[in-house]
Design a protein that fits this description.
Length: 341
């Protein structure tokens, strides 16, 4: 075990949640504060964060409504995936200089229980990739498509929010595993072009250019067997309308309603599940960590060979962490949104 290395700063910065947002989060709901750099306790490591993740699910943690994960505490550092370098260790098996993935982002330095860190290799992939294509984002795509949606070769697949970190990977995995057709929706013509030309989707459309139901019917005239839902709302209703017999819907997220202050109307055509003998199921990636080793074995070579492509939107500096998060809610990012410290 190593003791604390010299030349650590006395003070670092961290983001706190001051009040629970109503509707869209506002800057005054948050504060970037200075705090002492923590000393690691027995069984802990001190990590200098290098890359942190901001994700749509964090909006739910800012509310105190009952959910699958506890809410952020007020006036305490927020949390999220992070990759960094171990600068002090009081834990066996984790040494100073190791790079690790852990859940205490939104801060420059974090004292983390060693049981909650995963060592990662910068020789295999860029460190930021462990927050996205080879991290929780990638596993979300893999588990949602293959396990929750029971994807099989020959399926026609529709992905909403397809230019995002999860959606872009869902579509590519489906193609690599033999989908008959993959369709994606995105919020700009530039992203639509990216889906078809770089990610290999068979068709894509800009949901702002007309009713989703009409555009989906045109893109998938023979219907869809799988819908991977990142958006909800009119996308879910459209997918139900195009669902083939025995179709499956995996509900990963519904970003279109996260900031609503009133309940959003549900799809008006849920009877389609009866007519098609369809199935709709929500899932949380933390329930599927048993797939992690299989996921890395299968997807890792695709990433290394370039068969599976990924994009990152990188924002520099902890002071811009909040704006990067708000950008995810607005859809500003292409691929995974990363904040680099």
């Amino acid at each position: 075990m190593s003791d604390t290395t010299p030349a650590l700063p006395a003070v670092s910065r961290e983001w706190h949640l001051l009040s629970r947002p109503v509707g869209w989060p506002k800057p005054e709901d948050f504060s970037l504060v200075e705090a002492e750099v923590p000393q690691p306790g027995e069984g802990q490591v001190l990590v200098r964060n290098m890359h942190v993740s901001v994700d749509p699910y964090m909006r739910g943690r800012m509310s105190d409504a009952k959910s699958y994960v506890p809410p952020f505490a007020l006036n305490k550092p927020m949390q999220g995936g992070a990759v960094g370098e171990v600068v002090a260790s009081r834990a066996e098996g984790v040494a100073v200089g190791d790079h690790v993935l852990h859940p205490l982002g939104w801060r420059e330095y974090a004292a983390v229980d060693a049981e909650h860190v995963v060592r990662v290799d910068p020789e295999v992939a860029p460190l930021s990739a462990y927050l996205g294509v080879l991290g929780m984002t990638g596993l979300t795509a893999y588990a949602g498509l293959l396990r929750t949606a029971s994807f099989k070769e020959g399926d026609s697949v529709f992905v909403s929010g397809a230019a995002g970190a999860v959606g872009s990977q869902v579509g590519q995995i489906a193609k690599l595993k033999g989908a008959s057709r993959v369709i994606g929706s995105a919020g700009s013509d530039e992203k639509v072009k990216l889906l078809v030309e770089e990610y290999g989707f068979d068709a894509a459309f800009n949901y702002k250019n007309g009713p989703v139901s009409r555009q989906l019917r045109e893109a998938a005239p023979d219907g869809i067997d799988v819908y991977f839902d990142n958006v909800g709302g009119d996308h879910l209703e459209a997918a139900l309308g195009s669902l083939n017999n025995n179709g499956r819907i995996a509900v990963c997220g519904m970003i279109s309603v996260y900031n609503n202050t009133e309940p959003a109307p549900g799809p008006r055509n849920l009877t389609r599940l009866i007519q098609t003998r369809g199935r709709m199921e929500g899932f949380i990636v933390t329930d599927h960590y048993d797939l992690q080793a299989e996921f890395v074995r299968e997807v890792g070579p695709w990433v290394r060979s370039g068969e599976l492509k990924y994009r990152e939107t990188v924002v520099e500096g902890i002071e811009n962490n909040l704006e990067a998060f708000l950008g995810v809610l607005r859809g500003d990012n292409t691929g995974k949104m990363i904040v680099t410290y």
